Amino acid sequence: MNTTASTTATTATASGRRGRGGRERVLAAAARLFAAQGIGATGMEQVAEAAPVSKRTLYAHFRTKNDLVIAHLQDLVRSGATLEAVLTRADLAPRERIRRLFDQPAVDATLVRGCPFVDAAAEFPDPESAVHSYAKEQKLRMVQLIAAVVTELGCREPLSLAEQLATLADGAASRAMVLNDAHYGRHARAAAEILLDQALPGGTEQG
To answer: How much is the CA Rg of the chain, to the nearest whole Å?
Structure first.
C-alpha cells in the first residue's frame, strides 16, 4: 500500500472510531462530569472534549444541554443506577426490596452521589423546566413503586406508607452524599423497619 493510500485508510479508521457510539460516549462523559462537578458547572464543550466527539456530533445527538441532562437521567433509569431500581427486582422478597432501598447505588468507589433526580431538580429549580419536571416524574414514580411493594406485604394504606419510606430514602441519600458515607442508609433502614412493623397486619415480619 502506498503512503497516500495508507494515510487515507488510517484516517478513515480513526474517523470510524470517532463516529461509532458517539451518543453513548457523550452520555458516559456527561455522567462522569455531572457526578464530579455538578450539572451547572459542566459545559457542553467540556463534555464533547471528554467524550471525545466533535461539537457537531454532540449537538446532532443533543440539541441543548437540557436534552443532554434528561437523556443522562433516562440512561441512569435504564441502567438501574438509581435508588428505586431495587424495587422492581423479582429475585428479592418484598420486604428485602424495601430494605435495599436504603443502599447507595455503587456508581463510584470514592464519592457518594446521593439521588441524581434530587440533584438535578436542585440545579434546575424552576418547577416548569423540562429537567425539573422529569425529576419530579421519577420521584412520583418511586412512591408508586414503593406502594406496589408494600401492597404485596398487605399494607392497608400503601400510599401513605410509601410517602414515608420515600422521604426516608431521599433524606438518607442526601445525608449520605453530604457526609460521603455510603453506609449512612442504615439509620433510615432502622426507622423503615419500625414503620413497616406498625403498618403491616399483626406487625409481624414478612418477606
So the answer is: 21
